[in-house]
Amino acid sequence: MFSASDIKALREKTGAGMLDCKKALEETKGDMDAAVDYLREKGIAKAAKKESRIAAEGLTEMVVNGNKAVIVEVNSETDFVAKNEEFRNFISVISNAILNSDAKTMEEALNIETENGTISEYLVNLVAKIGEKISFRRFEVVEKTDKDIFGCYSHMGGRISVLTVIEGANEDVAKDVSMHVAAMNPGYLNRDEVPAEVIEHEKAIIKEQAMNEGKPADIAEKMVMGRINKYYKEVCLLEQAFVKDPDLTVEKFVANNGGTIKSMIRYEVGEGIEKRQDDFAAEVMSQING
Fold it and tell me: What pTM does this model have?
């Protein structure tokens, strides 16, 4: 009905395990195409089981083409998988596919066709093949004018990626700003971007601290304003001390080189994802007892 070479061919075609391939050929009476479909269907089932797992490792990537750029994050459960060639190929393929599309939402992105089916199908098949939860977490497409420059910087092999847009200046300046963003992790570009509720929350804490120190109300109010200004300098890119020359703010450094910063995006792998703390001994015992 089918031979060992058929099993090998199916394994090479799908990346599935030897026993899975044998079972697929048995179930489909040796029909290779039907066996591929069978394994894909099983892959979808396996992918669904992995949804409860936490994927907080992975990679970020940026791709630039002319006046358009994309920054992407894809997560995996382990750093080992993030170094896998197929995982890296996946993030490269989807980054380029998104860049060449008009997708603005995750739903639109997942329906983009690639050489491996839609991004959604490609992801499901990759999960089935690698055997680990993989999550296409986020992306952002950025467009610039001919007067602008993209500043791209990737740190630790893609653990952190920064994409800035600078009007004027040059590529070296833009890259320096992106390196600064990678290192100092500003939350906002400028004061206008800081939400009012964040500032009110900070003010309330600072005022309470001042009152607890026994300061009169008018002095406490002045302390609030002073510390809020300090807070802005910590969280706003334009007001941070530039890492390469702390005597200058980032805004001043760029201005001295004839430019202004228009936008920044910083992706760090797994940021904001609550990482599960596994009890390794308990996990081993559950495997033994299972």
Answer: 0.76
